[in-house]
Amino acid sequence: MKLFRNVFIVLAMLFSVQSKAQQLKFGHINSADLLDAMPDVKLADTALAKYQKELEDSYNFLVNEYQTKLDDYQKNKATWTETIRGLKEQELQDLQDKINQFQSDSQDKFASKKQELYAPILKKADDAVKAVAKENGYSYVFDTSAGAVLYAWDSDDLMALVKKKLGLQ
Fold it and tell me: What's the pTM?
């Protein structure tokens, strides 16, 4: 009797799991392709490239200033007094420190600008994928752009639905 009860419970659990699995609906999308199709990304890329050019121009200005002062120092150091030489060396060191600080700050500023430009775009794409998944009853949506899914049961490609949701062709 106890064995019959245990077998019944196991069978009931299996049927329950099987019926739940049949209700699950899987979809996939390549988020990299989706982002490539969004015009907002191209605008952000252009703005980011412009910002990077501004940072590079400022960096080049500082380096040119340093090189000019270094050339002047090397040409004239023999004619200067030790006090003047010391002041010029300190000026060169300060400028070198300024260049190093600028490089470090520029990396942080560039990362911040990139985050500022792309965060709303990524949210828009994510919201569209979630909305399509909910509207169409998908239990799970996998991102195939990362290449992490090595094998999966058949699933629906949601790209056309998400593009439609975003108003893209």
Answer: 0.72
